[in-house]
Write a structure and sequence with these properties.
- The complex is a heterodimer.
- Chain A is mostly helical.
- Chain A has helices spanning 5-15, 17-20, 24-49, 58-75, 79-103, 108-128, 154-176, 179-189, 191-196, 201-227, 232-235, 238-252, 258-277, 283-298, 302-310; strands at 138-139, 229-230.
- In chain A, strands 1-2 form a two-stranded antiparallel sheet.
- In chain A, helix 3 (24-49) packs parallel to helix 7 (154-176) and helix 4 packs antiparallel against helix 5.
- The relative contact order of chain A is 0.18.
- Chain B is mainly α.
- Chain B has a single domain (4-280), classed as ABC transporter involved in vitamin B12 uptake, BtuC (Orthogonal Bundle), CATH 1.10.3470.
- Chain B is built from eleven helices and two strands; from the N terminus they run ααααββααααααα.
- Chain B has helices at residues 4-35, 42-60, 64-91, 95-117, 142-164, 166-176, 178-183, 188-210, 222-235, 240-261, 263-280, and strands at residues 132-135, 138-141.
- A two-stranded antiparallel sheet of chain B has the order 1-2.
- Chain B is globular.
């Protein structure tokens, strides 16, 4: 249980925020940050721990978002139930993309390319298919009842987003401490060696892809409920593929709290750029790009890596669990 | 519908479009073949070059076919500098880092263009843009014919350069055996930067050939990137001949599939081909074993 303690502490502290401020601006900022942290945690499991760099996590985000929205709008299905189906649908897309690319042994840049292509195919299909509202987009009807996963104030949304992030942290920590997690890291470090030692690399990568897709799909489902509007460029757009990889890489790739830390940093940076430039388009994203290069070049282990370098060695928790029972 | 009166022009137009695709893919495949990196900034460099060609005409009245003489060397230098001073040093020789750094560059360039020029779409009006040449039943726009011929010339020059010049031989040596080349006294960091510069010059030429018949906005190059990736995968990563044949092939496929399926579904045809190609034969039709 000790390994889960930091998660409970962080989530408990963050849960107090709505009691400190009722500002919609602050809460809205934090909800979006948590959303990116959640999508980024999905990417982090596959990319950070497994070393498989996806450039198309929009495929899972968009599928989660669209399934949640379409089930409500077209079939009148309850939003909470839609959330579960949306997550499952995202996982299913993960199975399809993962099975296809890993079965054929796609690695490295080829894997990045094929995930990008899958997300683009979905975006084009969504922009012409009638069920998604094609060019017009999908609008979820305003229905401010908790049963419909809609709320008067931002605070409940904030707590739900925080709950989802907390859940994803627990899942990833559990994987970190499991045999499966060890296999996954072994594949990242040297896939051929892992295979030679008897790791079923296909199954491990596929399983990581499924969990990764499900987590990022959950972020998409939440997005649909929070903003109540989707079109193809939002749901399957490259913005979310980039945010989902930027957050963990900036925060600390392959670390538990990396995506949360990174999401906070990139969102703060984005918002302050907007303030300084008066919302001129482009500059905030240009700074994201600059940040990405700077982190890769100067701090390959992200901000978390920088922070842990500041802590004297003897106070540092062991970065790799030396013993695990189970 | 299947009469030659329709099919022949579709074929010829496909070849013309495909030639531009081939040139963009040529730059990409050159960089991949030597540095073994997928350059995600390729499309935005194309966009930047299209802006350069646009303003050369709009501000100074310089014809794109003359402007290429300035823009291509300029973009060679830009590409050289990017690889030598940014991509090379920050990537620490790791594949995953190359992906991220070039992606970061793409984000920066695209959004700076967006910031400076806004999302407006711009076109230029050349006096001869709508002139046509009649070949059998087909009417071909003059700028597209010029582009087709120019691409064949550029590809031939590039091939001769790679085969016969010292720099070309050094590039091939680095591509085959980096360590051995280094031991033989070749400055690998310089050769990497030269290769990146050549690849960037290819998109600069493509931009000058495109601008007479195409538009430019901050995302104009994106449409070409995935197509170029498809061609590179199809033709075999690193193969010049593969890029040329692959580009022409994809141009023809696109021409026919948008004729039969309509514009947006025609686009899907390319992506589906891309995915199938990646899955079935990632080493491509002309490539060596991956």
């Amino acid at each position: 249980m000790k390994t889960y303690l930091p998660i409970f502490v962080v989530v408990a502290v963050l849960a107090l925020v709505p009691f400190v401020t009722a500002s919609n601006v602050v809460l809205n900022f934090l909800v979006v940050t948590l959303l990116i942290a959640l999508a980024g945690q999905g990417w982090n499991l596959l990319g950070g721990y497994g070393g498989q760099y996806s450039f198309g996590h929009a495929a899972f985000f968009g599928t989660g978002a669209y399934v949640t929205a379409i089930l409500q709008v077209q079939y009148g299905i309850n939003a909470w139930f839609g959330l579960l189906i949306g997550i499952a649908a995202g996982a299913l897309v993960g199975i399809v993309i993962g099975a296809l690319s890993f079965r054929w042994g796609l690695r490295g840049s080829y894997f990045s390319l094929v995930t990008l292509a899958f997300a683009e195919v979905l975006r084009i299909v969504a922009s012409v298919a009638p069920i998604t509202g094609a060019g017009v987009g999908t609008l979820i009807k305003l229905d401010l009842r908790p049963e419909a996963f809609q709320f008067q104030s931002r605070a409940p949304f904030y707590w739900i987003a925080l709950g989802l992030v907390g859940l994803s942290l627990i899942v990833v920590r559990g994987i970190e401490n499991s045999r499966f997690g060890a296999y996954l890291v072994a594949i990242r470090e040297n896939e051929d060696a892992a295979r030679a030692l008897g790791v079923d690399t296909f199954s491990v990568k596929l399983a990581a892809m499924i969990v990764s897709a499900a987590i990022t799909a959950a972020a998409g489902c939440f997005y649909a409920q929070y903003f109540l509007f989707l079109d193809a460029a939002i749901a399957y757009g490259t913005w979310i593929s980039i945010d989902a990889l930027l957050a963990p890489i900036v925060g600390g790739v392959g670390t538990l709290f990396g995506p949360l830390l990174g999401a906070l940093i990139i969102k703060m940076l984005g918002e302050s750029t907007k303030l300084v430039t008066g919302g001129a388009p482009g500059l905030d994203l240009a700074i994201y790009g600059l940040l990405l290069i700077a982190v890769v070049g100067l701090a390959p282990r992200g901000i978390a890596g920088l922070l842990s370098a500041l802590v004297p060695r003897r106070f540092r928790p062991p970065s790799v669990p030396e013993h695990h029972h189970g | 519908m299947l009469s030659p009166v329709i099919l022949v022009p579709a074929l010829l137009n496909g070849l013309m479009t495909g030639a531009i695709y081939a040139l963009i893919a040529l730059g990409l495949t050159l960089i991949y073949g030597v540095l073994h990196i997928i350059n995600f900034a390729h499309g935005t460099l194309l966009t930047a070059a299209m802006f350069a060609a646009f303003f050369a005409y709009a501000l100074v009245g310089l014809d794109p076919y003359l402007a290429v003489l300035i823009i291509a060397p300029l973009f060679f230098l830009i590409g050289y500098g990017l690889q030598r001073f940014i991509i090379g040093p920050t990537a620490h020789g790791e594949d995953r880092n190359y992906l991220l750094v070039t992606l970061g560059l793409a984000i920066i360039i695209e959004n700076l263009l967006l910031y400076v020029f806004r999302a407006d779409t711009r076109t230029i009006n050349l006096p001869y843009a709508f002139d046509v040449i009649e070949i059998g039943t087909a009417f071909l726009a003059v700028p597209r014919v010029i582009a087709f011929v120019a691409v064949l010339v550029v590809a031939s020059v590039l091939w001769i350069f790679m085969q016969w010049t010292d720099t070309g031989k050094a590039i091939r040596a680095v591509a085959k055996e980096k360590l051995g080349a280094e031991l033989a006294g070749i400055d690998v960091a310089h050769i990497h930067a030269v290769t990146f510069g050549l690849g960037t010059a290819c998109v600069a030429i493509a931009a000058c050939l495109l601008i007479p018949t195409y538009y430019v906005n901050p995302t104009a190059g994106d449409a070409f990137v995935l197509i170029a990736f498809t061609i590179v995968v199809l033709g075999g990563m690193g193969s010049i001949l593969g890029a040329l044949v692959g580009g022409l092939f994809v141009g023809v496929v696109e021409s026919f599939s948008s004729m039969f399926l309509g514009q947006s579904l025609g686009q899907i045809g390319i992506f589906v081909m891309f995915i199938v190609m990646l899955l079935v034969r990632p080493s491509g039709l002309f490539g060596e074993q991956a």
